[in-house]
Amino acid sequence: MVIFILACTRTPYSTTNKQYKKQVKALSKKIQQAPLKDSLNSVGSWVGTTNFNLRKPNFVIIHHTAQNSCEQTLKTFTTTRTEVSAHYVICRDGTIHHMLNDYLRAWHGGSGKWGNTTDINSSSIGIELDNNGTEPFSDIQVNNLLLLLESLKKTYGIPTANFIGHADIAPTRKIDPSIFFPWKILADKGFGNWYADTTGQTISADFKTLDALRIVGYDIRDSTAAIRAFRLHFMQDTLNILDEPARKILFSLYRKS
Ligand SMILES: [Zn+2]
What we know:
The protein is α/β, with parallel strands linked by helices. Helix content is 39%, strand content 8%.
């Protein structure tokens, strides 16, 4: 009878939580290895330094889950074969699930590029917002996201410009977070760059838009995709043209970069 009650009070994730601990233990062993056996194998002589700490995240990548519930996403991120995960999942009701230690590498970015950074997963925190991609984000969800961002920015000294979206780093593959995501609200609080008032702004005649997109951070190998990602983030639409309003916004961002 007692066993039955215990079984009922177990969380649906107790098995995967155990698996988490096991995997962390295996990774710890790798770090504890001495003499070192990583890149140089056993060729050189080992002298351990006494001055070091952990590497830390320098980017935050924001996503929407494109799923219908938080439960669905937790299930996806605890199923081995999906090979996807994030550090945090924020539900529509504002609940924040912390799924992976900030110092460990989640699998949320996939192949992507921002500036010269290519292995985004190694240098970023991934935050997934429970949202199907065609609906607005709830106030409580955004408010709790802001609280989390505040803490991450302070703890790791993440630069303002390095709070970006999945579509920004993978413009040919991704469209999240959607046009409903309030980037301006984030930027007003210091999370992500924003453009200055473009009223009356004149653009220099030699302004090269693709160079500007690249300097802002976009991978311009597919320029149409890069423009679409830029507009998704800064103009909240899905167009892929650099018309006058877009050029002015880009010019302002370029001058800040
Ligand atoms: Zn994503």
